[in-house]
Structure formats: structure tokens, C-alpha cells
Write a structure and sequence with these properties.
The chain is an alpha+beta fold and about 350 residues long. It folds into two domains: about 1-270, outer membrane lipoprotein receptor (LolB), chain A; about 270-350, TolA/TonB C-terminal domain, CATH 3.30.2420. Helix content is about 15%, strand content about 35%. It is built from six helices and 17 strands. The strands form three sheets. Strands 5-4-3-2-1-12-11-10-9-8-7-6 form a twelve-stranded antiparallel sheet, sandwiched between helices. Strands 14-13-17 form a three-stranded antiparallel sheet, covered by helices on one side. A two-stranded antiparallel sheet has the order 15-16. Strand 10 and strand 11 (about 215-225) form a beta hairpin. The longest helix is centred in the last third of the chain and has 13 residues, at about 315-330.
Length: about 350
Amino acid sequence: MKQRIESYLILAGLSFIFHPLLLESQNIVPGPKLPIEWFQRASEQLDLRTPGAKPFHMRVAFHAYPGMELLDIKKRPEIVAGDGIYEETWMDTRTWRREVTLDNYHAVEVDGDGARKMQASSDYEPSRVLMLLNSILNPIPRDLSSREYMEDGVSGWKIEYLKNQTTSLVRIGKADHNPHVSISEDFYFLPQGLLVFHNQRGLITKWENDIAFAGKIVAKHLIISAGEQPLVSADVMIEAASQVDPKLFDLPTDSADSNWTLRPLHPYEVRMSGGTFTRSMSTVGPPQSTSGYVLWFVLDRQGWRREIEVIDTVNPTQAKYTMDQMRKERSSPATIDHKPCEISMNWDMY
């Protein structure tokens, strides 16, 4: 899988050399020596929401694809798919509004006058919405770029330099010890530090068609895929925010707890209580010649695994068996500040 990803990335990277923002990459000062420095530099380039940053309005039109669920043909698909819209108006760190719609799901989150509030049509945020918002709000996870998590977050990462006749990429990754499926995590940068790809155990995010906005870099198009199979495609529009009505940053509800947010939560900031599902279940069931697969799912606030799908597999039969078992079982949900929260997760068997 890693070799397939590498070939895909190098070939896709050819388009970047024609972007006007990247023409100066021909004479580049050697990059940072430490992985944390690459992560911090990329975060600074991409973070639109720092104190004192220019107010903006962002509109993202996206399409969510169903992916590969391996459900019986008579069952209703689990993946929430279709066309969606995400809009964000950001004035400063304490005055902003986010709104997203996909299929029957609609949610609004605001922060104004020191109170963060949220309303949603459901207490479950679809998997494709989490994927999209993660790529927009957290292209570099905080445990890799923030001093708050620096000691643990950047251990075990390795810098590698990739090059063909026309394209150079820098990979910051963790070792992949499996020949069948991608169980590694890798970030790919252009030599001047721009993040272009993220491979998270086979889940690939690609940012492209970059533009400059208020001293930052914004990708006008992004694709999230399982290898070459698309899961989310999105087109991004950004402009300076004009004067807006303060009522836009308020909702007729009480302040929201930390577990009630559109911002995707990550394992490093939540508490996992464990559950009844163990790897032993992955070895029971249909005979297998090679056990290799990566699954992706959402653990909801009630402890159910939802929208389970295959990211990478060499054994669909065995993967389907594990997915069927996961759908039947309930575990303790993740928590933040002692309150149940929703979190996306992956599962691998190799």
C-alpha cells in the first residue's frame, strides 16, 4: 500500500510545479532539521485563526462519497453522502460562526461575547463532515506543532527526501512495518514547507490550487480518499469578511459544553475508557490467507461504532466479518472534561 501511495503522490505532485506561488522553489534554502520544525512552519503558513489575523468569510462546497462499506446488498448504506456546504465567518478568536449541512444533518456553532453555543439537527456528526472539518481546521494536529503536546507528539518521526525529475517532496513519517496495508502516518511537504499530502494509515488528504490570503496559504481544492478511492472532494472560496450583524454570532440556546462542538476532537485531547471489542475478534470467523486491513469509523456519544468503512484491505472477507462484529457491539464512549464526546478512529489488523 505504501508503495502505491508513494507513486500516487509523486505523480500528483507534478501539477504543483506550475503554481505561481511555488515558482521560487527552484532555489530553496535547506529546510529544518527536526520534524517539529517542519510541523510548526506548516502550521504557521496555514493557520487563519490566530490572534490578530485578518477576518474572513469561507464557503466550502463539497461532495461526500459513500466509500466501501462491505454491507450486504439488502442493507441500507451507513455512510452519509451527497452534496454539502460548510460556511465560516471569522472575525477574531472569540467572534466566529461555523455552519455545515450534509444530507439531513445541519449544525451551527458560534462564539460571541465570550459564550460558545451550538445547535444541531442530531447529536451525531457524520463521518464525512468530520473528515472535511479536520482538513480545514486541523491540517497539522496540535500534538505535532503545539508546545503543549510537544514532548510526546513528535517522538518517532523521521525525515525523508523524495525526488523525481521534476518534483521534490519531503516526507515526515513514522515507520510502516507491514507489507500489505498502510499502518503508518506520513506528511508530505514541498521543500519550502507547504503541506500537500497527509497519509493517515491509508486515509489520504490532498490540498491543491493554493492561493495567498492575508499572509497565509489557502487550498482552493482538497480531496480526501482511501488510496485512489474518493471520499470527499471540496472547493474552497475565501474572502475578507465585511461588517456583519452581531446577531450572527449568537444562538437562542445556552452555552455549549466542551463535548458539544463541530471541531473534530482527537485522541490526544480526550479520554478513552476502553471497550469490549478486542483484536481477538479479528481472528475469528472466515478462513484467511493474509490478514491485512484498515477500518475507519466514528465512535459516537453513546459508544456505538458508526459509518464503519474500509480504508485499505487485502482481505475483504475478513474485514467484513470484523465490521459486522463492530456494528453489534457497544463500548464506553470517549470523554472530554468527563462528558461523552464523538471521535473518529481507525482500526487495523495485520
